[in-house]
Design goal:
Structural class: alpha+beta
Largest sheet: 8 strands, mixed
Strand content: 15-25%
Bound molecules: histidyl-adenosine monophosphate
Low-confidence stretches: none
Radius of gyration: 27 Å
């Protein structure tokens, strides 16, 4: 038997129900906010991720699925969605479109060679949004509140937005200097990864999972004390809008994010569900005002986020949302012989094209077994076709809730069913 690759899983049965529910709720809400759908390739040239996510990030240094294709090109399975969207924005010259800013949403599989554990996989699904072309703090707040509302609408109510700012380049240079000075005497007491980060990207030490409870990190200087006037005012405005939009946020100066492209606002949406262990971040994002330009496009301020669908599936299962995400069937049509089955084939098709969810037997089961099958899939109305009655132009309909049975003229059957559901 061939088995699935480590860190992947099949989505079927009740998982499939959650997967579709999450994606469809997300796209419905994104459309309310007037975001447009985009789909970019699942593999891109490796260079794209090296130049965006960052050479020193964990993702690029340890986690990408890289390969050389048959045409000797270096390609990478996308570890995240932002880089591809930005590549597409530049390549398709979306900056020249009349309707600005460009507001996009996406959903699809991403690949990271991580150590699999609860809520962390090597193939996982993200849905996310990116807004390209707006620099106003109200845009940061809209993007964050969209994520917050989507999660809230799914019934997850203990969500907190942990928010921080990385400020502009000047603020970050000042902060980096202060942080390096503070960390220098302590660096040998931090984990080996942090000792490396100290040389390559010291800010990343702040969100180290291994050292997160150490006093060294807890007492580190906060970037909020090193912001210049402009960065500080900008961040205050974002927070003011979030308050107006009723978004529950918490300042957390240790949030620096693991991807290199951020500046100004950065945030994570977290929940305290124990089932997710170390993977309690449901979504994350921030502003990335230099990325488009770094990839060769015109200077374009951007902001976005992505949420982990797999983690949401775990939560919805835990919250027992199963009963709310109904997959009940409207009508079950019963037939046991050829004549009845001919009528059934046509009736089932007509009912389905009347936008009803309809099932019937294709296993040649007896009537009793068909009643049981109808019960198991929670069929609401049972249409019982019987040759004798059909010859008289009559069809029996049973309400599976009230158990009431009625005889209906076959010409009125569709109208009857529609008005009784
Ligand atoms: P990220 O923080 O790397 O950000 O991922 C966002 C979310 O994807 C995480 O919060 C988590 O829910 C989910 N996720 C990440 N890795 C895994 C995994 N191995 N298994 C399951 N779920 C996972 C980004 O990817 C950025 N592109 C977000 C962004 C968009 N920033 C600006 N625009």
């Amino acid at each position: 038997m061939i088995i699935k690759p480590k860190g992947t899983y099949d989505i079927y049965g009740s998982d499939a129900k959650y997967y579709n529910y999450i994606n469809s709720l997300f796209s419905t809400i994104a459309e309310y906010y007037n975001y447009k759908f985009i789909r970019t390739p699942i593999f891109e040239s490796s260079e794209l991720f090296h130049r965006t996510v960052g050479e020193t990030s964990d993702i690029v240094s340890k986690e990408t699925y890289d390969f050389v294709d048959r045409g000797e090109r270096n390609v990478t399975l996308r570890p995240e969605g932002t880089a591809g969207v930005v590549r597409s924005y530049i390549e398709n010259k979306m900056y020249g479109e009349v309707n600005q800013p460009i507001k996009l949403y996406y959903s699809g599989p991403m690949y990271r060679y991580e150590r699999p554990q609860a809520g962390r996989y090597r193939e996982f699904t993200q849905f996310g949004v990116e807004v390209l072309g707006s620099d106003l703090p109200i845009q940061d707040a809209e993007v964050i509140s969209l994520a917050y509302r989507v999660l809230e609408e799914m019934g997850i109510d203990n969500i907190t937005v942990k928010i921080n700012t990385l400020g502009d380049a000047e603020s970050r240079v000042n902060y980096r200097e202060a942080l390096v000075k503070y960390l220098e005497p302590h660096i040998n007491n931090l984990c080996p990864d942090c000792q490396n980060r100290f040389k390559t990207n010291p800010l990343r030490i702040l969100d180290c999972k291994a050292d997160k409870d150490s006093d060294i990190l807890k007492n580190a200087p906060s970037i909020l004390d090193y912001l210049n006037e402009e960065s500080k005012n900008r961040f205050d405005k974002v927070l003011e809008y979030l308050t107006i939009l009723d978004v529950d946020y918490e300042l957390d100066s240790n949030i620096v994010r693991g991807l290199d492209y951020y500046n100004h606002t950065v945030f994570e949406l977290v929940t305290d569900m124990p089932e997710l262990g170390n993977a309690s971040t449901l979504g994350a994002g921030g502003r990335y005002n230099n990325l488009v330009e770094n990839l060769g496009g015109p200077s374009t301020p951007c902001v976005g986020w992505a949420c982990g669908v797999d983690r949401l599936m775990i939560i919805l299962k835990e919250l027992n949302k199963d009963s709310e995400i109904t997959d009940n069937v409207d009508v079950y049509v019963m037939a046991v012989n050829d004549e009845e089955r001919l009528t059934a084939a046509r009736l089932v098709q007509d009912l389905r094209w009347s936008e009803l969810k309809v099932e019937y037997d294709t296993l040649d089961r007896g009537l009793k077994a068909q009643f049981k099958a109808a019960d198991r899939i929670n069929a609401r109305l049972l249409v019982i076709l019987n040759s004798e009655e059909l010859n008289k132009g009559i069809i029996t309909v049973k309400d599976n809730l009230t158990k009431e049975e009625v005889k209906i003229d076959e010409n009125e059957i569709i109208d009857y069913i529609i008005s009784n559901l």
